[in-house]
Specification:
Distance between the termini: 46 Å
Strand order of the largest sheet: 1-2
Strand content: under 5%
Shape: globular
Number of helices: 14
Largest sheet: 2 strands, antiparallel
Number of strands: 2
Order of helices and strands: HHHHHHHEEHHHHHHH
Radius of gyration: 19 Å
């Protein structure tokens, strides 16, 4: 897997095409955690390790290759969603989708449609909530509690990231991915994205991130900067740079008619 990743590095399209032809036969079974009938069988930890390595390899396999991204969009999107049911939230699985959506600054419409449709049905929204014992043992937390804990009580340098940090990083990446689906002339993906994080909630989130007293002295923290940046980008992609009359009406109503849409 490391060798394949190296060969596909720097968008070597010949290598990418060669290995993509073996995606269904070789790489997707590994993405599912490898063989289940081994002797002795793989442990859950070993299967997750194989999945993560394979996810990183597949990500390199499609970076910058519009033809492959279009051809394999449906298969990869469905596989990622299916494996999240098995492994739970995964940064490595979610990372596969980014190069499928935008190639050389231009959107791949079939990927925008596939990803937005799959995640509105399967992901449960962009609320950023941390469930009980998710990312490790611990209580449930809402988004504000997750951010405050991740930013004000970070893990020790070099140590394992805290569950709150993992959830915040996942929320950042999912917000970015869903927002990317709304770029360009894509009213239907804009509406899907806006249903996952409605305008009111998006604005309330930004106000909390900038005005929360507990975060006041941490405004330059990398994790806080990341969640602010991706939320602002989401606001732009989904609501401000929108071609949907419904979305524009929602924004103007919230802003009491004072917000002029471009």
């Amino acid at each position: 897997l490391k060798l394949v990743t190296a060969l596909c590095h720097n968008t070597d399209q010949l290598s990418q095409a060669l290995f993509a032809d073996r995606l269904d036969m070789v790489f997707l079974p590994l993405l599912r955690g490898g063989p289940t009938d081994g002797d002795p069988p793989l442990t859950d930890q070993q299967r997750e390790h194989i999945m993560k390595l394979t996810a990183r390899t597949i990500t390199h396999m499609f970076v910058g290759n519009r033809a492959l991204c279009s051809e394999f969009s449906t298969l990869l999107t469905q596989t990622v969603v299916d494996q999240m049911r098995v492994f739970g939230k995964s940064l490595d699985l979610l990372q596969i989708l980014k190069p499928l959506i935008i190639v050389d600054g231009k959107a791949v419409e079939i990927s925008q449609t596939n990803v937005s449709k799959s995640f509105i049905e399967k992901s449960g929204g962009l609320d950023g909530r941390l469930m009980t014992d998710e990312w490790g043992p611990g209580p449930a937390m809402d988004f504000q509690q997750v951010v405050e804990h991740a930013v004000t009580n970070p893990s020790v340098d070099g140590g394992e990231p805290l569950r709150q940090e993992m959830e915040l990083e996942y929320t950042c990446l999912l917000t970015e991915v869903v927002g990317m689906c709304a770029r360009g002339l894509m009213p239907h993906t804009e509406l899907r994205a806006s249903s996952m994080l409605p305008f009111d909630q998006c604005m309330d989130r930004l106000l909390m991130l900038y005005q929360d007293k507990a975060l006041a002295q941490f405004q330059d923290d990398d994790k806080l900067v990341s969640i602010k940046r991706c939320t602002l980008q989401f606001l732009n992609d989904v609501f401000i740079d929108s071609d949907s009359e419904f979305t524009q009406a929602v924004v103007q109503q919230r802003m009491n008619g004072l917000w002029t849409m471009p």
